[in-house]
């Protein structure tokens, strides 16, 4: 299948009971998701979620008896390859895919497969990562389960569910905590009328949203389960080769704790066309070259979501590589 015809993939994740299947039901009723293929992973031998999804049977794939991030990851790859082949042969017709993970999944290995597996990249492209968070139990879940915090940390869009079952103060505290864990993610409600549209706009858009307070170094005290969101801004264009070498080095040395890197980069050799850089753990995604800057702000802006990495290590190695100058940083 030609690269131009790659089908976008939405990865839908969130902890157990956070409302993923309910949100998926809303999405597949939207016109822009009407012709999507749905892949559901359930942890256990008996699948139930597929019975709750209002979707045509021939466009549904169920991966049972394991977590999609480990024991059935090979099945996910095989399923996507099979779907792409059937689409190319005219046996199936769909324009996009939604993968709903089990609530126990660490999304990082799935992102790895979608972005670097040579059997998938010709036919599929990751569009966005959506994480559901239960407004009633969200704070307790984030405190008790580090996996929930990791799901929040990799999201492009956070959908806070069950807000009608809790009070306003609890919801505000949860949103504050979510913003501390992942300040670049949008936060939405499942009832937002434009939710389907926002899903297709968040993947790269998050890279150039303003980094609030990035001009001043500061630390906010929030319970983030050891996750740190560290933002770096460079006023001057960077040396592209040195920058990419530095990102590769950081991923190689600290990849296990490098949950996500996302940014828009001004390069000295081609300042009118910014680069979009994204990395997940040990994997640095291929650089995307944009045709133009999305706004008048042409500074390099990078957000690192890390766990167990001192942000000063990032800043120190950045300077050692001589990548840029006139920088400012913010840590949350």
CATH class of the largest domain: Alpha Beta
Beta-strand content bin: 15-25%
Q: Structural class, please? A: alpha/beta
As for the number of domains, it is: 2
Report on the biggest sheet: 7 strands, parallel
Give the C-alpha Rg: 20 Å
Care to describe what's here?
Zinc chaperone that directly transfers zinc cofactor to target proteins, thereby activating them. Zinc is transferred from the CXCC motif in the GTPase domain to the zinc binding site in target proteins in a process requiring GTP hydrolysis. It holds the Pfam family cobW. With 332 residues, the chain is an alpha/beta fold. The chain has 2 domains: 3-206, P-loop containing nucleotide triphosphate hydrolases (Rossmann fold); 210-331, CobW-like, C-terminal domain (Hypothetical Protein Yjia, Chain: A,domain 2, 2-Layer Sandwich). 30% of the residues lie in helices and 24% in strands. The protein has 10 helices and 14 strands. It has helices spanning 20-28, 73-88, 107-116, 138-144, 146-153, 168-181, 195-199, 202-205, 240-254, 311-320, and strands spanning 7-14, 36-41, 60-63, 96-100, 124-134, 157-161, 186-188, 227-234, 258-265, 275-280, 283-284, 288-289, 300-307, 327-331. The strands form 2 sheets. Strands 3-2-4-1-5-6-7 form a 7-stranded parallel β-sheet, sandwiched between helices. Strands 8, 9, 10, 11, 12, 13 and 14 form a 7-stranded antiparallel β-sheet that branches. A hairpin with a 2-residue loop joins strand 10 (275-280) and strand 11. Helix 4 packs across helix 5. The longest helix is centred in the first third of the chain and has 16 residues, at 73-88. Residues 43-60, 62-72, 204-223 and 325-329 have low confidence and may be disordered.
